[in-house]
Amino acid sequence: TPERRVRGERFAASSYCVLDDDFARRQFGARPVGSLRVTAAHEFFHAIQFGYDFRADPWLLESTATWIEETFADRVNDNRRYLRYGTVRRPGVPLDDFANDRYAHYGTWAWWEYLTDRHGDGLVRTVWRQADTVGGAPDRHSVKALETVLDRHNGLARALTSYAVANLAPADTYPEGRRWPPARVGGVVTLDRSRRGASRQLRIDHLAARHVVFVPTRDLRGYRLRLTVEAPRQRATARVIVVRTDGRRARHAVHLDRRGDGTLTVRFDRRAVAQVVLTLVNTSTRYRCRRHTMFACGGWPRDDHPRVPVAARA
Fold first, then answer.
1. What is the pLDDT of residues 222-262, one digit of tens each?
2. How far is Cα 127 from Cα 143, in angstroms, rounded to an integer?
């Protein structure tokens, strides 16, 4: 908990931690020393954060503190229980989601695991330095800080899209991914000769994703699948994963024009293709800040729930 504000600083504070003295297995479901280690790491990381900005966006506070558990006590895996609530299992949850009666912000530690596996653990510190309020530091809100750092690594939109795709098959991406839940699919559409076309109207929150699966029946031999997307202009990305019958995966980007429209045609022959997955990501980082919400900058996202028409035809 924060204790005393640092003299001359608005949002930096000293702090202290109080820890339970037994961590009983019957209460926490794990070896007491393991529960103690991850709790100590989590809470001590909050103490570190308070030296930067104790009023930082709550999702950033909690998701990075849960991530440090994995870095400090990798074998305990207490934080694995939260993956089903966060952005791994539930891609429709915004990255900056926080609520006292839900656990998404704890489960989103996987986002930092994904980034640091690629860019090193120092990335988390770099983001916090962008959010820092001390001594004339940038004092950016969480998503702006993240965006600033990822601009050096191909951008937030590309990272978030790759993250959403990776969560369809965690075992292929994360060291312990075989024990992780895969991303929930928003819909499965089966196409055959009598029904070779389908359309959907998808709604996706900011910094969130939706997955739609298209499955060919056995009578679709020699076919291709044409996918058409009409996404919000410059605030969305689309990816297609062709899952072959032998388990191999081919990834394709759907190139969206300035209006957000794009088309891609891929193989859809049932002898070779098990399914085609279309992933759509709302990459908007626009907010009306200081509206007393729990999202980034306490703001209302300006681009939630856009209607995204999707059409598929074999």
1. 999 999 999 988 799 999 999 999 999 999 999 999 999 99
2. 9
Separation between Cα atoms, residue 145 and residue 128, nearest integer Å: 7
Looking at residue 308, its pLDDT comes to 94
**Does the pLDDT of residue 274 top 90, yes or no?**
yes
**Rounded-to-10 torsion of CA 238, 242, 248, 253:** -30
CA 83, 184, 145: angle at the middle one, nearest 5? Answer: 55
Q: Give the rounded percent of residues in the chain with a pLDDT score beyond 90.
A: 94
Give the span between the Cα atoms of 310 and 306, in whole angstroms: 13
b/e per residue 60-73 (b: at least 16 CB within 10 A): bbbbbbbbbbbeeb
Q: How does DSSP assign 95-124, residue by residue?
A: TT---TT--HHHHTHHHHHHHHHHH-THHH
Closest by alpha carbon to 104, among 294, 272, 232? 294
The token pair that represents 42 in the structure block: 């989590």
CB of 217 within 8 A of CB of 190? Answer: yes
pLDDT tens digits for range 161-194: 999 999 999 999 999 999 999 999 999 999 999 9
Is residue 249 within 8 A of residue 279, CB to CB? The reply is no
Cα separation of 174 and 77, whole Å? Answer: 14
Q: What is the pLDDT of residue 306?
A: 86
Mean pLDDT for 278-291 is: 97
Residue 231 near residue 256 (C-beta atoms within 8 A): yes
* CA dist., res. 19 & res. 295, Å (int): 29
- Burial of 217 by CB count in 10 Å (0-12 exposed, 13-18 middle, 19+ buried)? middle
